[in-house]
């Protein structure tokens, strides 16, 4: 079974970022299934682990919820990564999560990028602010990124155009999965939060 980790860095609940991420993950899974490859989607919502991400940046240790999120991403066969855009850049939450993932953990990982924003003027953020980060991580990012502005969720025509972009991007990720040379990984991006009792070695008794 192929696993697609769908990462959403949306800050609100409900979130258009989560909605786009879900649709991209579903499109990729459907494209894989159409070619005879069963796929499942594993959702990773960053908002609930926001505090753990900051703590990990400060301490170097991952709390259990964050460790689980990182493991889901690192051990997947492909990743859909979607972030809101603020002031022409990706959200700090999205970048901070990538900062706590080991720099080699996503090498050759097939990745589909998406972003949401209030206006189409932010659409280039995928290429100038997000794609370079994944290039540094040596991920195999597919050419088609999907940006959804507020208007894309409105009229029937805009919604249909967005659906077309989602379908194309899903097909791109499915192709990248089939062509992937990635070796299965085990998550070791950050050590788990230490058990201080064991670190003291019984000195407290």
TrEMBL record:
<feature type="domain" description="NADPH-dependent FMN reductase-like">
    <location>
        <begin position="3"/>
        <end position="153"/>
    </location>
</feature>
<protein>
    <submittedName>
        <fullName>FMN reductase</fullName>
        <ecNumber>1.5.1.38</ecNumber>
    </submittedName>
</protein>
<dbReference type="InterPro" id="IPR029039">
    <property type="entry name" value="Flavoprotein-like_sf"/>
</dbReference>
<dbReference type="InterPro" id="IPR023932">
    <property type="entry name" value="CE1759_FMN_reduct"/>
</dbReference>
<dbReference type="InterPro" id="IPR051814">
    <property type="entry name" value="NAD(P)H-dep_FMN_reductase"/>
</dbReference>
<dbReference type="InterPro" id="IPR005025">
    <property type="entry name" value="FMN_Rdtase-like_dom"/>
</dbReference>
<keyword id="KW-0285">Flavoprotein</keyword>
<keyword id="KW-0288">FMN</keyword>
<keyword id="KW-0560">Oxidoreductase</keyword>
<dbReference type="Pfam" id="PF03358">
    <property type="entry name" value="FMN_red"/>
</dbReference>
<dbReference type="GO" id="GO:0052873">
    <property type="term" value="F:FMN reductase (NADPH) activity"/>
</dbReference>
């Amino acid at each position: 079974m192929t696993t697609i980790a769908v990462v959403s860095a949306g800050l609100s609940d409900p979130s258009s970022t989560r909605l786009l991420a879900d649709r991209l993950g579903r499109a990729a899974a459907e494209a894989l299934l159409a070619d005879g490859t069963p796929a499942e989607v594993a959702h990773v919502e960053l908002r609930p682990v926001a505090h753990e991400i900051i703590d990990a940046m400060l301490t170097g240790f991952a709390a259990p919820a964050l460790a689980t999120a990182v493991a889901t991403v690192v051990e997947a066969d492909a990743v859909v990564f979607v972030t809101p855009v603020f002031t022409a850049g990706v959200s700090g939450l999205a970048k901070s999560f990538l900062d706590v993932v080991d720099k080699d953990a996503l090498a050759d990982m097939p990745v589909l990028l998406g972003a949401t924003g209030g206006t189409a003027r932010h659409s280039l953020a995928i290429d100038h602010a997000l794609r370079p980060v994944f290039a540094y991580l040596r991920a195999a990012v597919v050419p088609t990124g999907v940006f959804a502005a507020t208007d894309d969720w409105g009229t029937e025509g805009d919604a249909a155009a967005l659906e077309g972009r989602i379908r194309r991007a899903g097909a791109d990720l499915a192709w990248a999965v089939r062509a992937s040379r990635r070796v299965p990984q085990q998550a070791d991006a950050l050590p788990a939060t230490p058990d201080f009792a064991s670190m003291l070695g019984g000195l407290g008794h």
